[in-house]
Specification:
It holds the Pfam family WD40. InterPro entries: JINGUBANG-like, WD40/YVTN_repeat-like_dom_sf, WD40_PAC1, WD40_repeat_dom_sf, WD40_rpt. This protein has two helices and 33 strands. The chain has about 450 residues and is mainly beta. The protein has a five-stranded antiparallel sheet with strand order 1-2-31-30-29, with no helix packed on it. It has a five-stranded mixed sheet with strand order 17-18-19-20-33, with no helix packed on it. A hairpin with a 3-residue loop joins strand 18 and strand 19. The longest helix is centred in the middle third of the chain and has 8 residues. The relative contact order is 0.19.
Length: about 450
């Protein structure tokens, strides 16, 4: 499933160490770059023309825009031998400790739980790695694997064909994953199809059941209590599923373009990010046996697409990555006031993750920025390099080999369109460094929604 990548000696320690511009909270304003300004920034991409800027007239059903990339030269070899390369020396702070490579396809999704790592690709296979060794795998009938989420003994996978598949781990043999069904269930599809009122228009002259996604599932998110599953889709909707009985409780339609990300916060608050350039806040209300999500606020409205969302573990910060290479964030404790902008990437931010006081941003420029948060001040403490293609997905777990104490360490997994998964050791207590000339954090004085005029073309991921 992962293409061969042997350039794993570059671990981020050789990355340029740029100036870090630090400012006091809420003193400075936002900055909009012009296309000319953006073009002047040096790029590590193989071509000056980014393959992540999509043709707006292309139908999303034709496949993921990433399939048009120069890295998409996949030769599926489901029986090829996986490779694991690992450094024998003790890893320094913020460094690569190994690379998982399997000749199957681009990596689109990751999910980590304890000593298990699930990886999804455009080969339609889901591979399971245990202690960084291939453990087992299972395959869907169709649709590249765009999202994976773990809930106890259940694994949910979201696919390009618009389906959400449910898998169960065998009690007798944990290496066996059995297909447990799909969302929505066949029973619910049959019951809903009887009533004409359950059909909605999804495209011109085309209708479909409201409980089904009519386009690619781009993202999955679990509520903190694991009662509800949220699925975002290119069909412009977010669907809410009750895990207990697999019922679709609600279909939220408000975005004007593909929904690229959805994340659940505490107290029934949900965030969604779309290719229409907006980030919205929703509040879940229980009404009888169902739910109703009410729009609370629009945090962001801009021309370029929102591509990724993340919430820090405490739930106090909400982060948004976009196709302009910027990461915006908001403070929940201050009624979602705009906290600032993190500038560290030359191309689109494709994924975000957070652990402890760290935030990780993966980009089409092939790098991962590691940001350390102190209040609203974010310092880019490291730039991780080593991938030969865009960094498409991230997963992070606490380092179980760490003896605790003051040095909190994390294991970061990064999946790329170079067909590999890199494994990194990251320390939370790494002192502030100057890491990249383009990296800085700009706090904002805005108290409400934030608007940017910077153009971008990267719409659906």
């Amino acid at each position: 499933m992962f293409g061969d990548n042997r350039k794993n000696s570059n671990n981020g320690n050789n990355a340029p160490r740029p100036q870090f511009v630090q400012s006091e909270p809420r003193l400075s304003t936002t900055e909009a770059y012009t296309d000319d300004d953006y073009a002047k920034r040096s790029s590590s991409a193989a071509s000056p023309i980014s393959p992540y800027y999509y043709d707006p007239v292309r139908l999303s059903g034709e496949g993921s825009p990433m399939m048009m990339s120069p890295w998409n030269q996949t030769t599926n070899s489901p029986f090829s031998k996986p490779q694991w390369s690992q450094s024998e020396e003790a890893p320094p702070q913020n460094s690569m400790i190994g690379s998982l490579v399997r000749e199957e396809g681009h990596i689109y999704s990751l999910a980590a739980s304890g000593d298990l790592l699930y990886t999804g690709s455009d080969s339609k296979n889901i591979r399971v790695w245990k202690n960084l060794q291939e453990y087992c795998g299972f395959k869907s009938n169709s649709g590249l694997v765009k999202a994976i989420i773990i809930s106890g003994q259940k694994i949910f996978t979201g696919h390009q064909d618009g389906k959400i598949r449910v898998w169960k781990v065998s009690v007798k043999n944990p290496s066996i994953h059995k297909r447990a069904g799909t969302l929505p269930t066949l029973k619910d599809i049959f019951k809903s199809s009887i009533k004409p009122s359950n059909y909605v228009e999804v495209r011109k002259h085309r209708t479909a059941l409201w409980i089904k996604h009519s386009d690619a599932v781009s993202c999955l998110s679990l509520s903190p209590d694991k009662t509800y599953l949220y699925s975002a889709s290119w069909d412009r909707t977010i669907k809410v599923w009750r895990i207990g009985d697999s019922k679709c409780l609600e279909s939220i339609t408000s975005h004007e373009d593909a929904v690229n990300s959805v994340v659940c916060g505490n107290d029934g608050v949900v965030f969604s990010g779309s290719a229409d350039g907006t980030v919205m806040v929703w509040r879940r209300e229980i009404r009888g046996k169902g739910t109703k999500h009410v729009a609370v606020k629009t945090l962001l409205k801009q021309e370029c697409a929102v591509t990724a969302l993340a919430i820090d573990p405490s739930g106090s910060m909400v982060y948004c990555g976009a196709s302009d290479g910027l990461v915006n964030f908001w403070e929940r404790d201050k009624q979602f006031a705009h906290g600032g902008v993190l500038k560290g990437h030359k191309l689109a931010v494709l994924c975000l993750a957070s652990a402890g006081n760290l935030v990780f941003s993966g980009s089409a420029d092939k790098t991962i920025c590691v940001w350390k948060r102190d209040g609203v001040i974010h310092t880019c403490v490291s730039v991780l390099t080593g991938h030969d293609g865009p960094v498409k997905c991230l997963a992070v777990e606490q380092d179980r080999d760490c003896d605790g104490g003051r040095d909190q360490r994390w294991v970061l997994y990064s999946g790329s369109l170079d067909k590999s998964v890199k494994v990194w050791s990251v320390s939370e207590n790494l002192q502030h460094q100057r890491v990249a000339s383009d990296c800085d954090s700009v706090p904002s004085e805005s108290d409400g929604s934030y608007s940017s005029s910077r153009a971008g073309h990267n719409k659906r991921l």
